[in-house]
TrEMBL record:
Pfam families: AARP2CN, GTP_EFTU. GO terms for molecular function: GTP binding; GTPase activity; U3 snoRNA binding. GO terms for cellular component: 90S preribosome; nucleus. This is AARP2CN domain-containing protein. InterPro entries: AARP2CN, Bms1/Tsr1, P-loop_NTPase, T_Tr_GTP-bd_dom. Residues 20-47 are annotated as: Disordered. It comes from Citrus x changshan-huyou. GO terms for biological process: endonucleolytic cleavage of tricistronic rRNA transcript (SSU-rRNA, 5.8S rRNA, LSU-rRNA); maturation of SSU-rRNA from tricistronic rRNA transcript (SSU-rRNA, 5.8S rRNA, LSU-rRNA).
Amino acid sequence: MKLQPHKAYRTRQSGSSAFGFTSSVKAKRSQMRATEKEQRRLHIPTIDRSYGEPPPYVVVVQEPPRHKVPEVRGPVTVVSGKKRQLQFLDCPNDINGMIDCAKIADLALLLIDASHGFEMETFEFLNLMQNHGLPMFMGVLTHLDKFKCTKTDICNLTKFISVKKFPSLHWRTCRPYVVVDRFEDVTPPERVHMNNKCDRNITIYGYLRGCNLKKGTKSCNLHGMLVSMTALKFSWGTGLADPCPLPSAAKKKGLRDKEKLFYAPMSGLGDLLYDKDADKEANILSSSLLPGKAQDVGEMLVKLFQNTKYSIDEKFEKSFISVFGRKPNISSDATNNAKIWMMIQIILMTSSIKLRK
């Protein structure tokens, strides 16, 4: 081969046949390896049995003992994006609560004290999750402020949670189950007065997950308050509006139509809800009335007027003026109205004092 000064000197041959396999065994092994890699990418398609908008993903926070947060009670639903809702749940350290959390968790956050190390509860919860299909989990190190500055760790954690894709387990999609947000006792008071240990009737509220409830079903898996309540008979069920809906692009008609990003009825964070019998329920302990935040006078007045049971005309019809000196029996409604007006006067007095200052 002669040297060509106008071309780069090429030590290797060019062409497709120059780089082929010289051994048939080596070519067969390479083909088998490429086929196996292609087959690993294939997965069986899962059938989505949910109806309508999907329920929020359940994020279970498992922490070691001596690190409980007493203010948070029950599930906390948060809108994390335009098309995603997350429901945070605190996992207790007893075995029954851990089993229930391992059954319903889409993502488990394992809090590990960096100053102490791994504890036995973390390994127990990992073993329980492995027995129930092993949902996705993440390890979160706490108490790192003793070692380094953690300004961006929380931002990174929220980013990881928001971009995670949660795989659906087959045995969950085939069974309906409800994570109870709140419950009410609707047992008639006469029956409870006659027998304190009688069978109670309760109404539960929560997101239905898995498949739909079929007509004539006599039992359903209900996981509420982190206590297993399996094989309960229920009489009927109805669909309600989402108390924490996803943000929509529709034009808002009023100030009350603002987007609700948090919903925690057991912790006192929620809005007015109406059930089938048009019974109104108001949570007075809203975010504006929590300790450490400024209380708006107008909002407190509106909430006081919302608690009134009768209209103004009905109150005038039931009210009376005593001409004689005898003190008539004052009803409970009258005392409640007097208390409300007294609280309004106190609020107005305090607001005027603040304005003068």
